[in-house]
Amino acid sequence: MDVRDSNGTALADGDTVHIIKDLKLRGSSTVLKRGTVIRGIRLTGNEGEIEGRTDKIKGLVLKTEFLKKA
Length: 70
Description:
This protein has strands at 17-19, 23-24, 31-32, 37-38, 42-43, 49-52, 60-63, 67-69. The protein has no helices and 8 strands. A 3-stranded antiparallel sheet has the order 4-1-8, with no helix packed on it. It has a single domain, classed as SH3 Domains (SH3 type barrels, Roll), CATH 2.30.30. A hairpin with a 5-residue loop joins β5 (42-43) and β6. 0% of the residues lie in helices and 31% in strands.
């Protein structure tokens, strides 16, 4: 499986990524701001999604089109 970020850079388990756009989270009033760092990502079975966590939020599933490899 070949997972790529918004710039076309390949992503792997354990990589660090930055969010490139403010994202509202469903079911919460929290907003992930542009530039937020997601460390230690895990790849899912879907090429367009990764799992990660921030300091405050755990268990995030994010689309790779909103991420840039750090």
